[in-house]
Amino acid sequence: MNGHDKNMLWQVHRSQSTSMVLFLGVILFIFVDLVNTTVPCSTMNCNKNLHKGVKLAKLMNRTSAELVKTYQANQGDFAEQFCKTSMDNVPTSTLSGQTPPERVLSIYTHLKEFLPHLMKVQEQQNDLQPPSSPLLRQLTEIKDHVSHLSHKVNCIFQTLQPNIPVPEPPVWPTRIPPAQNVFQQKVYGCVVLTRLSEFLSKTADELRLLKNRMCKKKRTQKMSNY
């Protein structure tokens, strides 16, 4: 390989590295903006609340899907079908409720219910994975993002029902499994992450529909006042 070819390869590698850094920087910036919980709900209008909620749910849906793949790859001799195992103690991915406030409340309750399970999975994987494992970092990130999304959904519920406080689910549900062997831990973790990913997909769709419906309605009302 002559000097010209080496220089071309180096430039291509540099360009790819720069693009990756820029991409990661943009993703980080988006997440920082979306997970900002310091802004009071009352200062954000309908469009702002729902828009940020939809974007955060969509980003989390993508990252949770990648997390499931990473999780499965780190479990050794592990079959993908184990992730579909029936477990009554793990939150479902199904939303409930007929009215928009009821469905938003269902999203909020589910997010709160998933949190202790994510903490349990993280605790188990800390014992099973080396400290440098990317899986541990991804588990920490998804746990934090679930907490941030629940804050956004809380704000959305307050927009829909400003005079009704959001009922809080138990801090630590009794459905957390007792001591498990290593294989049971692997299956449990994959079930939790798979259902969370499915739930986030439905959440993103639900919030997008709500945004289109509610914010369009508010715009129509404003126009009719002129």
Automatic annotation (TrEMBL):
GO terms for biological process: cell differentiation; ciliary neurotrophic factor-mediated signaling pathway; negative regulation of neuron apoptotic process; nervous system development. Gene3D superfamilies: 1.20.1250.10. Its main location: cytoplasm. It is found in: Cytoplasm. Pfam families: CNTF (PF01110). SUPFAM superfamilies: 4-helical cytokines. GO terms for molecular function: ciliary neurotrophic factor receptor binding; growth factor activity. GO terms for cellular component: cytoplasm. Keywords: Cytoplasm, Developmental protein, Differentiation, Growth factor, Neurogenesis. CNTF is a survival factor for various neuronal cell types. Seems to prevent the degeneration of motor axons after axotomy. PANTHER family: CILIARY NEUROTROPHIC FACTOR. This is Ciliary neurotrophic factor. It comes from Astyanax mexicanus. The lineage of its organism: Eukaryota, Metazoa, Chordata, Craniata, Vertebrata.
